[in-house]
Amino acid sequence: MKMKNIISILTIFVLLMILPSCTDLDETLYSSLSESNISYTDEEIESMSGPVYTNLRYTYWAWEGMFDQCEESGDLLMTPLRPGVGWGAQYILMHKHTYNASIGHFYQTWYYPYVGIGYSNKLLDMEAIQADKEKVAEFRAMRALYYYILLDIFRNVPLITTSDIPAGFLPVQEDTAVVFDFIVSELDEAKLDLPKTSGYGRMNYYAVCMTLAKAYLNHNAWFYGNAEEGYTDNIWYEKALAEVNEVLANTGYQLAENYKDPFMADGSGCKEIIFAIPLDIDYASANYLSNKCLHSASAATFLYNSAPWDGSCAVPQFIDTYDPDDKRKTDTWLIGPQYSYKKNDVDITIYQYNDYLEAGDTDGLEATQISTTDGPLNYTVFVHSIDNPGAYKMEGARFWKQEIVSGRDGTYGTDVCFYRLADAMFIKAECLLRLGRDKQIAADLVSQVRARSFPDNPDKAIRTVDDLEGGSCYDYGLRETQVDAEKNDVQNFTYEGGADIELGGLLDDLAWEFVGEHHRRQDLIRFRLKDGSRNVFNGKSRFCYDASSVNPADDVKKNVYPIYQTFLDANINLVQNPGYDE
Fold this sequence. Notes:
The protein has 25 helices and 18 strands. Helix 6 (about 105-125) packs antiparallel against helix 8 (about 135-155) and helix 8 packs antiparallel against helix 9 (about 175-190). Helices cover about 40% and strands about 10% of the residues.
């Protein structure tokens, strides 16, 4: 069952109880309620932990939250202007890397992590918590996870480690290296007292290993930017490798049989998941992808009682990279004619339809193409542009990797798979390749993950060392098709290819396996062009992002997002990240 106790709202009441109180009885007798003489039951302490976890949900799925920040600025997924529908605006700025300090995306991943940190600090300052080593470790690890997110996105952040702060306190930003060292030391110490059992939506030993591995893996990109010197500091890859080796040694984690298994509405039974953010349609509704991505008529495919908003879609160049036998393409994207389904005249979902097909039970099975006011519903890979004129209603492949539940649910109650075993395997493979040893083991790990997605052609699942160390098959370059007044297509195309990307084959595999899993921005920043001049995030054009528009000297500035202007206005001690002073 999902852990609904992590979203309890009782916390606010319980936390208020710890404030000292005094009752005047008109005698020389006084009574006080203080932290030293309050005792809490295990259930009450459990209830108090709720906001520590719920704010991770808000960080990830509040409107324009972490999902958008990690995906919209990359080369896999976008949200274009839709003539007659809307969208565009700040999403266009994310795609073109012209984002600024006034767009909403940069509110959520600053505000909610600090709320989560605040609750963690409050609990860690309580004597009742301090007496429980496992709880102390849990809240220290969650606080470190929030700081890991902040460091990755903003770098220059305040470090607050207690709730005992004076009125009017305005924090200052700490040196990035100090924050990094704090994250590592907190996680290292938390590991000593955290359980090695699977906690799904609770922080455990192996979720800490994964967070440490991610921090180590990205260290060089965070600290060295475009500087070639030090960028290959191998000690951090060794450290990341050690952490994921601990995860991989736990036989309790296993690759799921099917690629989509970790992305079911309730993933608590999936042995591939190491750490998740549990959602629930009634108690923790959040994941709005089904509405953000689908055409309104597409709800009929899933018997979903809603009218989706026709927003996000795939970057066409990415769709073209898939091998035609790779099931991850159809498991992730809806492409082509879209249907509603029946079995013996009873409406069923696409999932049920596919189950019947797989079982060979086709009697009474019907598929009817969905009609719209604009004609039959048919998703094209082709998209004109992100903003000039944008994408027409049926343009762009639609993301459905996460289970879309019938009725009112959609994806609103579908859990977030935050870390999974395939991720640990890829981290090990990347570290080995970067360290230049045991390369065949690296290739075998990637091939093992790929195997489930090539059931009809297993030879295609095999990746060689040369494949992974070679260039990317992504056809980088501008691909904007504008429409002039006479409705003639005007193409703004350039051709850059991906042959000049270090470990370009591995970068491709990361895309196919982890699209839509808050991976891509971080991966593109970490992977570089072979001449060492730029990273892929800034240095490769795609669709309507023009890499030539970003001065190579300013690349490192675009690696970091701006601090939201409202936070700067509220705290005179905060300094904007370089490159966003305007």
